[in-house]
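Retro notes (design track)

What went well: tokenization of the new backbones is finally stable.
What didn't: we kept losing track of which sequence belonged to which structure.
Fix going forward: every design gets posted as structure first, then sequence, in one message. First example under the new rule, 96 residues:
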């Protein structure tokens, strides 16, 4: 999987525009890992999103090199993993 964030000021080349136009014409391919969303699935997804919207505040956090290496080995989305781990730790931390 390739992830790419398009800079809003980027200027696409003719070749890139052509590739995007061709990609728009291709059909969506569903499989067992990525099935087509049913109406029930869509309603459940929307309800879950409304009950716990994903938003947060970006922070700078310093962790040890060892911890960073461990979490990087968990996957490419290691920053999201760190965020979820921090949320769980704060939920379990006894309040004073």
């Amino acid at each position: 999987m390739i992830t790419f964030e398009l800079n809003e000021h980027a200027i696409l080349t003719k070749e890139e525009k052509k590739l995007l136009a061709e990609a728009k014409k291709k059909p969506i391919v569903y499989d067992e890992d990525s099935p087509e969303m049913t109406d029930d699935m869509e309603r459940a997804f929307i309800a879950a999103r409304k009950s716990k919207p994903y938003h947060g505040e970006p922070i700078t956090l310093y962790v040890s090199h060892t911890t960073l290496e461990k979490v990087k080995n968990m996957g490419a989305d290691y920053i999201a993993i760190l965020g979820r781990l921090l949320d769980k730790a704060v939920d379990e931390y006894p309040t004073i």
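Added context from the reviewer: The radius of gyration is 20 Å.
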